[in-house]
User: Fold this.
Amino acid sequence: MQIASKEVSATSLVKAALEKAKRCENYNIFISLNEEAALKKAQEIDEKIKKGENPGKLAGVPYALKDNFLSKDGNTTAASKILEPLKSPITATSVKKLEDEGAIMIGRVNMDAFAHGSSTENSYFGPTKNSKDEARVAGGSSGGSAVAVALDIVEFATGTDTGGSIRQPASFNGVYGFKPTYGAISRYGVVAMASSTDCVGFFAKSAEDIDLLMSIAAGQDPYDLTTLPNYYETSEVKDVKKVGIIKDFDVKGEIKEALEKEVEDLKAKGIEIVELEMPTLKYALAVYYIVVPAEISSNLSRYDGIRYGYRNKDAKSLDEVYGKSRSDGFMPENKRRIMIGNFVLSSGFYDAYYLKAQKARTLIIKEYEKAFSKCDFILSPVTPNPAFKLGEKTSDPVSMYLEDVMSVPINLAGLPSLAFPVSETKDGLSLGLQLIGPRRSDKSLLDFAERRLK
Ligand code: GLN
Assistant:
């Protein structure tokens, strides 16, 4: 990561990033640019460098912010109409930590509205295009973040991963994407999707850069009681001997070839490959699409046309304000999840769906624990297929959900996972794989990726 110094000024780094962002407009990456504030901050950093003061570990590094992070810079929309005019009075803890080290946000990037989706097509601002093929999806929900890094506009981008939203777009665009252990980074100031699986994480061009970002962003936060005491910097780096592969996934085509090649490379480096039987993982997608909508329906109930953002002006009664504002303000996928969530939580259905799903979730967590008694890390595809065509799955939500089959189990168990680029398909599309570790093995995972997977 190039940081500002006496040789390269923060102002020149930021100007170059903003110019590139404008040249790449056709990809529809940015919802808003943060031009004025970014240039002002760059000047301040250059002043500090001139005076010989410490400008921070990320001095002048331009970055993109997924538009579901609150900060005093710009408006947070979460790519929805209902939040479009939101000016936040607070800054997310993670954003504050990055900015305190001199990182400069050049703009807010596109995503599926409220992070519901796998393609960035559910954005109120239109889809982001894939960096390798503009006729294909960027992946999602953090599509803008992945493409901003893939096209070299910024050095890194923030993302959130509730069921794959960092790893899948990273893999569709040939960059690194890291979802840390649940609770590693504060969720304070991030628009909530499903609070029991939401994770803040990063997109970057190497595992080493992500390591630096983790060392800055991780840690306990009094504003988020689910944050873990900081284990990141202090955890020991494991000597990795065994890597597991999951027999139960149906891996095909060029993704299969990429996985087999990676396995051969690991073997050549002296790593033992362990085959794992994980039969409960086949229930993970069903569990995810019960637990997550349940939490979504609760988290999105606060957007009522009264407290935040958009309000329908024609409403004549309080009920109409709620109804019309929510009808106009949410995207169809948001509404679908609110309805599913309310259904699985309603009396008469709660035991059959929500409670059962929570029990199955415990079995999934236990299955990973068992797997990690046999190996240090697990190697897996991120998705069953490379980036699909824009519009290909929009009319069939279940086919879109099925793309998440290999990413969501990890979120249900709260595990860290790194998506890393491996190769390209014959058509030039990016292929990635993910490396999954036990809880709190984040540092080892990044270290292994940096030293052994290259
Ligand atoms: N694609 C998944 C979903 O739509 C994951 C989204 C996410 O991680 N935010 O739920």
